Amino acid sequence: MSQHSAGTAGHEHGHHDEHEDHGSLKAYIIGFILSIVLTVIPLLVVFETSMNKTGVIITIITMAVIQLLVQLLFFMHIREGQGPKYNVMALVLGLFIVVVIVAGSVWIMSFNSVVQ
After folding, report:
1. Where are the domains of the chain?
2. Membrane-spanning residues where (predicted)?
3. Can you tell me the mean pLDDT for 44-49?
4. Residue range 92-116, pLDDT digits in tens
């Protein structure tokens, strides 16, 4: 019985050290502040500028892509250790699926307007 509890205690300790390596408080605060700033910029562009519609859309999409990268780097730890290699492959597969679904939907909707 004591062998099992000693083995379990060692496993829990190793698991705890693994979480400490994921990110520092400083990295989380920087990521949080960047996320807030990247959310407020498009909001201000929409409400406070006389930019044309195309410029507003490009600004929103640019900020969204940058925020995606911030989320991946600061919160999902995509650049750390052995595991992120699998995370990157899963991310690429997910992005491919999203692009196929969105492009297929746009193609079907544009073809539908031709038929009717």
Report:
1. 1-80, 81-116
2. 27-47, 54-76, 88-109
3. 90
4. 898 899 999 999 998 898 887 666 6
